[in-house]
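Technical annex B. To support the medicinal chemistry partners, we prepared a structural model of the target in complex with beta-L-rhamnopyranose, based solely on the information shown next.
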Amino acid sequence: MIMTNLPLSADLIAEANAREIEALEDDYASLGRKLSRTGIDIDAIKRRVAGFSVAVPSWGAGRGGTRFAKFPIAGEPTNIHEKLEDCAVINQLSRVTPRVSPHFPWDKVSDYAGLREAAAALGLGFDAVNSNTFQDQPGQAHSYNTGSLSSTVKATRQQAIEHNIECIEIGQKLGSKDLTVWVGDGTNFPGQQDFARSLDRYLEAAAQVYAALPNDWRMLLEHKMFEPAFYSTVISDWGSSILAAQELGPKAKCLVDLGHHAPNVNIEQIVARLHRFGKLGGFHFNDSKYGDDDLDSGSINPHQLFLVFNELVEAELNPRDGFNPSYMIDQSHNVTDPIESMLSSAEAIAACYAKASLVDRAALHAAQESNDTMMAFQALRRAYNVDVGPILAMARYEAGGAIDVLATYRQSQWRPRKAQERKAVGLGAGIV
Ligand code: RM4
Ligand code: MN
Ligand code: MN
């Protein structure tokens, strides 16, 4: 049996909670009375929240950057082991992020059994494995400058296929069950590539990756409208994604990254559509104002996040074949401590799940059926307006987490302590 050795002292969390518990109990009781007036049992909502989780990205543990610059902070993790430590801090305080989604080759190590044990000792497991064929690695035989799974160069396609298969093999050693495939393939000029033939090449190559999936694995296809290609992208939208997933087979599903759509697109409707056809495989949560900004979840448009969760909870209560979405955060933190950003995002995500769970679905459905537009809207609005903070805090507290995650994190002095121990990271631009 693996002994867990969590990074923060349990006493520190207990002492911080002792200062907060009286106020929390008061707030929880008051919210419980308010909710019970509309027939909602607060403890039932708390139990749902306690059963909810979202994975954090290994690459989100470091300070990202833009194309222009990166401003590292002292004490940033420099390798996957240090990233896991930081992810363990997030989970220890929030109790809602027990899994880490790794990215290869960024997180490559020589001993994956050892890595899995190290994660387990920190109370963590692994979520979807992400492949990377959007960037060349030192010594790589074929460049991805012509694309990867859709490249016109056969040897390049083959290399991308083999990399994805290697990711599956690594994932099996880590206990993952999903391979997330996002390709940067696309064009910058009209006429640069034939739209149909590049998709043909992608589908043929993706089918070879699909063929290597173990029976209980899924391949999550992540679409993205633009960037790094600025004229066209091979898997640009949910339409291309679901068509590809349908062609590949039942183990292929679609992954929705909230930042990968055209501005103002109705993402919650996309969620409902993908679910309708049994193809909703997973999420990358983040927020954005302009493009794939990878800002903290709920920081720009918390209402959209709620509406997405409203569809997810509706889907959960009315499941179709294969509804088992994998929830992950995908963010890049440029100006904040990544641990603080992920703590805040995890709370925003869980809050939207809790609010969506508060929706009076019978009232909503009745209003929809009778075309009572205002009452249908109010069924959502009433839930959205509830401050679910006490429910989340109580669920965390009962699971051993911190009532006030950010204050407790700061009290722990984690980052200043790591600044003494960890090597400094380089200034290079970008997320790597
Ligand atoms: C992409 C996409 C992928 C992520 C990379 C780092 O825009 O969101 O999910 O793996 O960024
Ligand atoms: Mn993503
Ligand atoms: Mn992205």
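Notes passed to the chemistry partners:
DSSP finds 15 helices and twelve strands in the chain.
Residues 10-36 form the longest helix (27 residues).
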